[in-house]
Every structure is written in C-alpha cells, then in structure tokens.
Specification:
79% of the residues lie in helices and 0% in strands. The protein contains ten helices and no strands. It has helices at 2-9, 22-41, 61-66, 71-97, 102-114, 118-128, 130-148, 154-177, 180-212, 217-273. Helix 5 packs antiparallel against helix 6 (118-128) and helix 5 packs parallel to helix 10 (217-273). The two termini are 34 Å apart.
Length: 275
C-alpha cells in the first residue's frame, strides 16, 4: 500500500532519465578499447617488417601508441567511458531542464502565482516537462490539497507544502546526479593510470638498455616516447573528465537554484494568501 502511494505521488519523468547500468557502459568501452588496441594500433602495417614485436615505422604514431603496453587499453577504456557518459549526461540533464528555457519557465510560473492562476501554472508545467516542472507540478497539487484543507493550522499547511517540495526534489536529484561520481573518479584515475604506464615504460626502456650492455640513444628515445604516450592519454582523459564533471554539476546547480526560487514563491504565496 505504501509503495502504491509513493508511485502515485512521484512526479512524471521525462522521456530519458539516463543509463543506470554504468558498469555495462564501462565493459562495452573496455571491449572496444581492446579491439582498437589490437586491430588498429597493433596493425602489422605500423611496424618494421610487418611484425608488432619490432619498432614502429619512423613517424608512425599508431605503432608508437601500441608500444605503450597493456596500460593503453585501460586508459582508452577510461577515455571512452568519459565520452560515453558525457553524452549520456547531456541528454539526461537536457531532459531534466524540459522543453523551454528554464529562466522563462520560472518567470511564467511566478507571474501565474502572482495572479493567483494556478490552473495556468499547472498548464505551464505540463507544457515544460522535465525535473523542475515535475517538482513544481507536485508542489502545486499539494497547494491545491492544502487550500481545501480546513482542519489544519496555517503553519501546518505551509509545512506540508514545503515537505512536498523537498520530497519531489529528492525524487528528481538522483536522476540528475547519476553517473557523475564515475566522472569524478576518472578525473584522478585517468592521470594516475597514465603515470603508471609511463613508469612501466621507462622501466622497460632502461632494462633493455642495461641488458644490451651499452647506451643506445635511439632505443632510449624510442622507449621514452612510447612511455610518454601513456602520460598524454592519461592527462587527456583526466582533463576531459574534469571539464565534463564541472560542466554538468554547474548545470545541476542552476537547475537546483530554479527549483528553490519557484518553490519559495509557491510557499510564500500560500502563506500570504491564507490565514
């Protein structure tokens, strides 16, 4: 019975609420990264004598990336995951904002509240859709319910509207923040994996020079360039993750501010027009 009440109470969501199984996204990205590593970077045409065990052809960037070692597909997985989840968040948060511009929606709702036209405010929500409209719509329904409730004191009715606002917001926020913790983790993990690949590459390079019994500047420079490939990929992955995470958290903050603004207007309107 309680579950049914919660389902009836929950606001309707938009058409796209995001990908819940981020682990599946990471797995798919890992498979794609392995395929790229072996069949694109590890293509025999990128190496001397057509053998991936040899040095890459002079100036062949793909072969040099392949020589970065097994850490390369791991970093590629993180990079592809950032790209995939960035697009996923773009559509999910875009759906949360609704069909129209959010500042105009907030202004229209406040104008409708000031005029006391709650039917118009509800119609605006139905047209806008998205998380803000869902929260406002749920709060307006509670407003109408409390408007007819005469057995409770004014303070209790105001508190009920405020509680409905908070509960409706709590239902929408997880959808908006979904998968952002993964992006936040990759901001650091990508760079660390790049440094790990670089250290492993440098160890292999110096070990090869030591076993050769001499100083081969060509082999050393080749080994260093291969090792630094991992650093470049790691920094790129971390940078894209930081940009994506900050961009979407900023958009969520803007949406949350709009929710607070409209919710405050609804509560204050009720407090000002009821005794």
């Amino acid at each position: 019975m309680e579950t049914s009440n919660q389902q009836a109470k929950a606001p309707k969501r938009g058409s796209f609420t995001g990908i819940k199984s981020a682990g599946l996204v990471i797995l798919v990205c890992f498979v794609i990264a392995l395929c790229i590593f072996h069949f694109v970077f590890g293509n025999p045409a990128n190496f001397m004598n057509g053998d991936p065990a040899n040095h890459p052809l002079p100036g062949n960037f793909l072969g040099t990336i392949y020589k970065g070692g097994i850490v390369v597909p791991v970093i590629q997985t993180l990079l592809l995951t950032v790209i995939a989840l960035s697009f996923e968040r773009y559509f999910a948060i875009g759906a949360a904002f609704g069909k129209g511009k959010l500042p105009r929606f907030v202004r229209q709702i406040k104008d409708a509240l000031a005029a006391g036209d709650f039917a118009k405010a509800q119609a605006i929500c139905d047209k806008q859709r998205g998380s803000v409209a869902n929260v406002v719509s749920a709060t307006l329904r509670k407003y109408a319910e409390m408007d007819k409730e005469s057995s409770l004191a004014k303070e209790q009715r105001v508190a009920a509207i405020q509680q409905e606002l908070e509960e409706a917001t709590a239902l929408e926020m997880p959808m908006m923040e979904q998968n952002l913790p993964i992006l936040a983790t990759i901001t650091t993990l990508g760079t660390l994996m790049g440094l790990l690949g670089t250290v492993l590459g440098m160890i292999r390079s110096f070990a090869a020079l030591s076993s050769a019994g001499g100083t081969d500047s060509v082999a050393l420079s080749q080994g260093i360039s291969e090792a630094l490939i991992n650093t470049a990929f790691g920094i790129l992955t971390g940078a894209l993750a930081v940009i994506s995470y900050n961009y979407y958290t900023t958009k969520i903050d803007k949406l949350t501010y709009s929710l607070d603004e409209v919710g405050f207007s609804i509560v204050q309107t009720f407090a000002a027009t009821h005794k």
